[in-house]
Amino acid sequence: MMNIRETTDTGIRAAEIYAEMVNLRETILNETRPLSSSGDDDPAIVNLGHYLALRRHDIRLLQRRLMALGLSSMGRLESRVLPTIDAVIHALAALSGARADIPAMPSELEFFAGEMRLEAASAALFGVTPPTRRTRIMVTLPSEAAEGPDLILDLARSGMDVARINCAHDGADAWRAMTASIRSAANVVGRDIKILMDIAGPKIRTGEVASADKKPRLQIGDRVRLVANGVPRIDDAVTRSAAVSLPEMVTRLSVGDRLRYDDGKLEAVVESVGTGEAVILVRRTKSGGTRLKAEKGINLPDTALGLSPLTTKDEADLETVIECADLIGYSFVSRPEDIDLLDSVLDRHGRTDHPLGLIAKIEQPLALTNLPALIARARKRGPFGVMIARGDLAAEIGFERLAEMQEEILWVCEAASVPCIWATQVLEDMVKEGIPTRGEMTDAAMAARAECVMLNKGPAVVEAVSLLDRLMGRMNDHVFKKTATLRALKSW
């Protein structure tokens, strides 16, 4: 039984924290910034503004003091910032005997409204929630999926919820064939399967390669000349050279800019620049070196290229996308104006009779910086989600920061009731070889906190979908976003 002194000490501590919490609430309201020029009364965007204001402060000590009183540490408030703070303040008022001079204690419905908004947004984007899991499964279709219905039907029976068509490959006839097979498979299995068509955007890649060696393998300390136009040029000083797919990739480089090649297998820095060319110095590469080849991706995390996210090819492809797709995957989207640009092109083509959902692929530093503003703009247009494009994102911001940033993207999107897609190299060995690694199984389990997880194409993709379906079903009983859900354990 608690004695009088313990009761008094608890009341004093509660009163101190009560005053701190009231001050924090006032600070959040005062520091919340509008996320669009027109203002916004969307409750999800209002909550996002409150979340961003809160996360500009370090409240770790306050969290520990709340935990010691048996109260919420506010560590899972993404979808309900003010309701959580208000609930804590009312609990502190009861413990301290103070009068809670704030709005009434939120009801249970008000407290969980953000979760319901996220579930509704997920259903609008991806369709009805599967019966055994909340996380949908997306699969990138290979070119051979256009040759017949069997592969797509097998994927549908295994648990595929969204079929992804990559418009960087194949063409309109193949995409229409895939679409017909997807719609047919959906009828066979008796459930809706959404179609995401991912427009390619500007691709920054190596072109023709020249080298004094037949098979150039780059090591630390090697130099490579990049040429904006024409044939790659080598000499006695620089014995390897490559053309590039976009001249701006070379002409806008500055000395000291970093460059990552082939999904980050090599990192270099710009050593010198000249008219229409630049020389880069290799600073880091994988063990044994990295082959210099054509058609390999290049990332430039320090260079503002000023490229439009929509190419001429994308604008032509959108005609078929409008015809076939439920969702558009938007590469290189970085600013709210990029969404306006896409909508203007869609208007020129003539929109379909159903709203096309939008998936913004977050793969560049500027997209990270502008993510709240992108969300505020995109939510106005209809169903919207974010893809954490972990391959390009890692190459842009560095592998060391990827895990941290994918968590922060999940938090920001939850605060705004925006569904997230966990993408790139999920169960990669399983898809390609038929056997998963221990590490990728753990990564796939972590994906249960997202609303959708994406698998790439590969020989064993059907088996991978089945495995992921079972794994997501089990994880569904253990976790909801950041919250562990305590079902009865049966192992002990």
Sequence stretches where pLDDT stays below 50 over 5 or more residues: none
The CATH homologous superfamily of the largest domain corresponds to: Phosphoenolpyruvate-binding domains
What does the largest sheet look like? 8 strands, parallel, barrel
Q: Please give the count of helices.
A: 18
- What is the share of helical residues? 40-55%
What integer is the average pLDDT? 93
Radius of gyration: 26 Å
Q: How large a portion of the residues is in β-strands, by DSSP E? A: 15-25%
Structural class: alpha/beta
Number of strands: 19
Q: If strands are numbered along the chain, what order do they take across the biggest sheet?
A: 1-2-3-13-14-15-16-17
Distance between the termini: 33 Å
Shape: globular
What is the fold named in CATH at topology level of the largest domain? TIM Barrel
- Any idea how many domains? 3
Characterise the protein shown here.
This protein has 492 residues and is of the alpha/beta class. It has three domains: 4-111, no CATH class; 117-202 and 308-481, TIM Barrel (Alpha-Beta Barrel); 206-299, PK beta-barrel domain-like (M1 Pyruvate Kinase, Domain 3), CATH 2.40.33. Helices cover 43% and strands 18% of the residues. The chain has helices at 4-31, 43-54, 60-68, 81-96, 108-111, 113-126, 150-158, 172-189, 248-251, 312-324, 336-349, 365-369, 371-378, 390-397, 399-415, 428-433, 438-446, 461-476, and strands at residues 136-140, 162-166, 194-199, 206-211, 217-218, 223-227, 240-244, 258-261, 266-274, 277-285, 290-291, 298-299, 327-330, 357-362, 384-389, 420-423, 452-455, 479-480, 483-484. The strands form four sheets. An eight-stranded parallel β-barrel has the order 1-2-3-13-14-15-16-17, surrounded by seven helices. It has a seven-stranded mixed beta sheet with strand order 4-7-6-10-9-8-12. Helix 1 crosses helix 2 (43-54). The mean pLDDT is 93.
